[in-house]
């Protein structure tokens, strides 16, 4: 089976099991990192990009449902594979319907673990091509021209959507007002029309949240 290139975050407080999972992923030439508590999850996801999370439902400092909830609030669409010793139908339905993308019951076969990770990443990539996810639960669906903030649909005008999408596609890059006028408004007289940028950025901040667009000496950029 061909496996996608992926970066995996292993959240498992059982050190032996965590080591075994990492060893198998290393053997399969898949990059991974081990952490052992919820607070490390927050730090890692804020500092690094991961394609999928392996999450044990019994962490020492927080219940699994709260972990998934907080991950979904900040990193909306990252796939989560739950590891659990519980296998009742009610448990499985809760995980799949509410927070998790897939589950694996302990003990498990490592080949199956890898196959499920591969499947999650493959499905995620097919959806990701049409969606852009930003910090604090903002999701832009490019194909349907919809924007969600913490799972709630936000009504944007066509120009607001176009501005937000352009900034999101160029996140981490500094964007000048002149560039926005040319690419979003298709106007070139920056002196007379730069106020349009100010006004529509204010609209986005009001409808989403105040830091959705940062400013620095007249340069705009989208946060991630």
Low-confidence stretches: 188-192
Helix content: 40-55%
| Major beta-sheet overview | 5 strands, parallel
Number of domains: 2
Strand order of the largest sheet: 2-1-3-4-5
Q: Give the radius of gyration.
A: 20 Å
Q: Average pLDDT, to the nearest integer?
A: 79
Into which percentage range does the β-strand content fall? 15-25%
Total of helices: 8
Q: What is the β-strand count?
A: 12
CATH superfamily caption of the largest domain: Response regulator
Overall 3D form: elongated
Distance between the termini: 34 Å
Task: Provide the CATH architecture of the largest domain.
Answer: 3-Layer(aba) Sandwich
Structural class: alpha/beta
CATH topology of the largest domain: Rossmann fold
Short description:
The chain is α/β, with parallel strands linked by helices. Helices cover 46% and strands 22% of the residues.
How would you characterize this protein structure?
The chain has 224 residues and is α/β, with parallel strands linked by helices. The protein has helices at 15-27, 38-47, 64-74, 89-99, 110-128, 158-169, 177-185, 190-207; strands at 7-11, 31-35, 52-56, 80-84, 102-105, 131-134, 138-141, 146-149, 152-154, 175-176, 213-216, 219-222.
């Amino acid at each position: 089976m061909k496996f996608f290139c992926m970066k995996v975050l292993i959240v498992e407080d059982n050190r032996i099991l965590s080591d075994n999972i990492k060893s198998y992923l290393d053997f399969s030439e898949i990059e991974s990192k081990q952490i052992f508590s919820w607070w490390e999850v927050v730090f890692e996801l804020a500092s690094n990009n991961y394609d999928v999370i392996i999450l044990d439902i019994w962490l020492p400092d927080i219940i699994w449902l709260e972990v998934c909830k907080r991950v979904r609030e900040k990193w909306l669409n990252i796939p989560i594979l739950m590891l659990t010793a519980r296998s009742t139908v009610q448990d499985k339905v809760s995980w799949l319907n509410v927070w998790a993308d897939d589950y694996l019951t302990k003990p498990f076969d490592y080949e199956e673990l890898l196959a499920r990770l591969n499947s999650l990443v493959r499905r995620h990539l097919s959806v990701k091509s049409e969606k852009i996810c930003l910090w604090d639960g903002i999701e832009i669906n490019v194909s349907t021209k919809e924007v969600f903030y913490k799972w709630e649909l936000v009504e944007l005008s066509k120009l607001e959507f176009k501005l937000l999408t352009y900034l999101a596609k160029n996140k981490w890059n500094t964007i000048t007002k002149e560039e926005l006028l040319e690419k979003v408004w298709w106007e070139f007289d920056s002196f007379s029309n730069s106020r349009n940028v100010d006004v529509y950025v204010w609209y986005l901040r009001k409808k989403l949240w105040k830091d959705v667009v940062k400013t620095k000496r007249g340069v705009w950029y989208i946060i991630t």
